[in-house]
Amino acid sequence: MATEVLLTLAGLSDRWDVSPKVIYGMRYRGEAPPAIRVGRELRFRVADVEAWEEGRRDNGGPRAA
Questions:
Q1: CB 12 within 8 A of CB 44
Q2: Can you tell me the mean pLDDT for 3-15?
């Protein structure tokens, strides 16, 4: 069984260059990738984060109304 790589909240905020507060707000609004709670801490699977990022890719084209 392969070991999954997990990011801490600090690791995810570093990856996105935002404060942890921004990620908490995103989670509150249901806009963040899924997290795993380990005790009181949050962990994010890298695979989930990458899938979430890919789903929000902006290609810079015109947006449909």
A1: yes
A2: 94
